[in-house]
Amino acid sequence: MGDRLGLIGYHYSVYTRIVRMAGIAFELQLRYTEADPFAAHPDPVLAAHTPLGRVPVLTHGDFILTETAAILRYLSALAAGPSLVPNDPKAAARMAQVIGIVDAYGYVPMVRQVFSNAVFAPMMNEAGDPEQIVRGLAGAKPALSLLNEIATEGLVLNGTVTLADIHLAPMISYFTMAKDGAALLAQYAALAMWWARASTLPCLQNTDPFAPQAHLPV
Length: 218
Hints:
By secondary structure, the chain is an alpha+beta fold. The chain folds into 2 domains: 5-78, Glutaredoxin (3-Layer(aba) Sandwich), CATH 3.40.30; 89-201, Glutathione S-transferase Yfyf (Class Pi), Chain A, domain 2 (Up-down Bundle), CATH 1.20.1050.10. It is 57% helix and 8% strand. It has helices at 14-25, 44-49, 68-78, 89-123, 130-153, 163-177, 179-185, 189-198, 202-205, and strands at residues 5-9, 30-34, 57-60, 63-66. A 4-stranded mixed beta sheet has the order 2-1-3-4. β1 (5-9), α1 and β2 form a beta-alpha-beta unit.
């Protein structure tokens, strides 16, 4: 494959975790560099690779790629093993739809509002905002409802891992670390059944930043 793949990320970032999961699933080695997109002053490593100030960033020689969905498709194209993109056009479209739903309607309420305030802030000895948690729980319902319909249909989120699972699992992992998030997910039977399977994926468990002795790739 020539030049080594590099990943610039933030270890608590769900999007960094998504790319790390894909690297494991595709058996690709990613040289990891930590960068904090929330630092008071712009991280010099991150600033040197993207004007957006966001993670993850993939490097492959002098090729630089941002946006998680694009990175996943690039890694999929490089991988020698089985593809995580369904051959069936309808299933492939559903996979892309799940990724779009997660990014547009799931990330902010589930991660930035619920997880960040109910779980992450207390872990960092900071006070979370209860109002943000309430808003996040309400805001997550449309995405959870549609994802539940997709899981019920069964074209994806059906036990056969695709990029949809890789993209969604870290979001649900963080969301269900909050007691109220876990309780809300349980109301969506098909999605909860999917999560019971997805939560055991080795690539998810091996990238948990909160696990004992959690480590980053080098």
